[in-house]
Amino acid sequence: MGRSPQTVSYQATLLALYLLGLSLRGVAQVLAVLEVPPVSFVTVWRDLQRWGQRLRRPRLQAQVVGVDTTFVRVRSVSHGILVAVALGGKTLLVQAVGAPQDYQQAFSTLRRLGPRW
């Protein structure tokens, strides 16, 4: 079976079906039901890999603007909550619930985000 020519709309359909949560085999089965040229799940995987290479971007380092902790008493038990928010307040970076000594893992995660922390 040779490579069949695939249009951009065909590949976009592959991508959309995959992003909607279908497995590689599921995407291939849906395309078979739509009576398009038969495609194997390996072809779907290869096309998604190609699209992924085009979409790759370098990871941006987050600038932590706000870190806040508070304690909440639930049924006479005190629980601590730590929240760290990124620049602009739109991205929650870390949320930890538990005792203050459990926050060390949250702080180490923040340190790995970049030198600004």
What does this 3D model show about the protein?
With 117 residues, the chain is α+β, with helices and mostly antiparallel strands. It has two domains: 8-55; 64-113, no CATH class. The chain contains four helices and three strands, in the order αααβββα. The protein has a three-stranded antiparallel β-sheet with strand order 1-2-3, with helices on one face. The protein starts with 7 loop residues before the first helix and ends with a helix. The mean pLDDT is 72.
β-strand amount? 15-25%
Q: Give me the side-by-side strand order of the main sheet.
A: 1-2-3
Q: Whole-number radius of gyration?
A: 23 Å
Structural class: alpha+beta
**Helix-residue proportion:** 40-55%
- Low-confidence runs (pLDDT<50, min 5 residues)? none
Q: What's the β-strand tally?
A: 3
Number of helices: 4
Instruction: Give the terminus-to-terminus CA distance.
Output: 54 Å
Count of discrete structural domains: 2
Rounded average pLDDT: 72
Element-by-element helix/strand order: HHHEEEH
Q: Which term fits the overall shape?
A: elongated
Largest sheet: 3 strands, antiparallel
List the helices and strands and how they pair.
Elements (H helix, E strand, L loop, with lengths): L7 H12 L4 H10 L7 H15 L8 E11 L2 E10 L5 E7 L4 H11 L4
Antiparallel strand pairs: 1-2, 2-3
Helix pairs in contact: 1-3, 2-3
Annotation keywords:
117 residues; alpha+beta; 2 domains; 3 strands; elongated
